[in-house]
Amino acid sequence: MRATFVTRIRIIFSAFLLLAVLFVVRLYFVQIVQSEEYSEIAQSQYVASTAATDERGDIFFKDKDGRLVTAATQKSGWRLAILPKEIYESEEVTPDSIFNSISTEYTLDKERFYASSKKTSDPYEEIAFKLTDEEADNIRAKNIKGVFLSREKWRFYPAGKRAAHALGFVGFQGNEKSGRYGLERYFEDTLVRDKNILDTNFFAEVFSNVKAFVSPSSEDEGELITSIEPTVQKRLEDSLSEVGSVWNAKKMGGIIMDPKTGAIIAIAALPTFDPNQFNTEPDSSIFVNPLVESVYEMGSIMKPLTMAAGLDVDAVTADTTYYDAGFIVKSGAKISNYDGIGRGYVSMQEVLNQSLNTGASFVVDEMGKETFGEYVEEFGLGEETGIDLPNEVKGILGGLKSKSDVDYASASFGQGIAVTPIAMVRALSSLANGGSLVQPHIVSEIRYGPGLSKKVWDKPEDRVIKKETAEEITRMLVEVVDTALLGGTVKEDRYSIAAKTGTAQIASPYGGYYDDRFLHSFFGYFPAHDAKFLVFLFALEPEGVRYASQTLANPFMDLTKFLINYYDIPPDR
């Protein structure tokens, strides 16, 4: 009996002790950590009654050493307004005197100011935004009748255009301000804050954070920590910009991903924009992320997947040969190699080395088109990957539903089916990681509160090809780089690199394909047999050049060498 009583006392004491600790922790964060935030809110409410504080969680890049680098945050300043009705009825000031007085401290939009001052029946007109503390203090010191200052916050992206398509921006949709595009939109419920945070109940906040830690959802408030490495991101963007300037491509894109985990280290698209000044863009289509929201016929980077499927069902080996006449006829349609030239008897290794369309079609014939169709679906080319970005679209595999031989032959070398770059990257990663599909993701961790965070995207892998198949196709792709890519001149003696080019004709809206418009693509991974990175690049309609090996092979190798040196990756041969 006494033991039971002592136990109860201990439980009650522990509960009170825990409660006291929570109060102390909360007091520390309110008075020390969040003091500036609460001070600003109080000051804003004192100066002007505002409906919203625009509070929002931060987004961070993460460098290779684990340090967080701010990618999106809140910046505070002042909103300047005038009271036209009060000015009109005053004998002390005039619009001219007010304009001249303010202009000594801040450059006003003259047209906007005078248009606002003429609205004499309006009690309140905003005329300027994002004033600094110094500018606001100087104007306030003048004590100008009819002039009003109120605290405001806005979204700020310290790196400007860096990773703009991944981050998105915050803007108005109707009367509501919310995340638009990118992570800002996808994680809107996580990033947005209660507009009246001073009224947040302490216990509700504590237990909400605990809940978030145990069972996170998109509705729990937090900050985002991404897998984007800022230095790598800049290098990728610079590389794409150089290629775009040389070849004047309509669009460029690139992804650098860890093929074992799906963590995206860098993701970029050109043309791009500055999320701090998104409202200056004349065409909103620039905000669309072509790596996730657009589909393309990818060309010959499909051949390694076709070959992997054939190897996986033992339909072919690297040494299997066929007779290449330079063309084949399927369903009454002629399909040729890129140059129309026949090579006679060649092996499957040479199909990849020389990128032979007839050889890819041969692999489909050997395994059966139904089996090939099943592998295309297993590789996830017709579905969303689930990447943490909005508006992802599915691939278009309609040609494979027709059961026509020519459609299957075309699909074997990446024509006639259209997929998103991110879906292609996920499928190709299975060759680099031993045969599994991984979950592509940008956010690696959500931080909910003091000491509370949760790793995300720990999704089980789905095996699509055997490990032995992945090893063999990797060996074959290393051979492509060592002996065939740019004549073997890009071979690295100390590192094995697996890679393949892709050149796809652009479909004409009037039927058939253009003869002079192409999509160039390139992918590769390294070190090939223990891949740390997979790099994917594409260029839409580069001018004055036909093959992807001419536009993207050297940029890929430059990125590869940079990553090897930056991450100090040891040689593997």
Automatic annotation (TrEMBL):
Keyword Membrane belongs to the record: yes
Organism superkingdom: Bacteria
A GO CC term assigned to this protein in UniProt: plasma membrane
Alphabetical list of InterPro entries matching this protein: Beta-lactam/transpept, Beta-lactam/transpept-like, PBP_dimer, PBP_dimer_sf, PCN-bd_Tpept
Subcellular location: Membrane
Keywords: Membrane
Residues covered by the Penicillin-binding protein transpeptidase domain: 254-557
GO biological process, one term: cell wall organization
Keyword hit for Ribosomal protein: no
UniProt main location, coarse: membrane
GO molecular function: penicillin binding
Protein name: Penicillin-binding protein transpeptidase domain-containing protein
Native organism: Candidatus Kaiserbacteria bacterium CG10_big_fil_rev_8_21_14_0_10_43_70
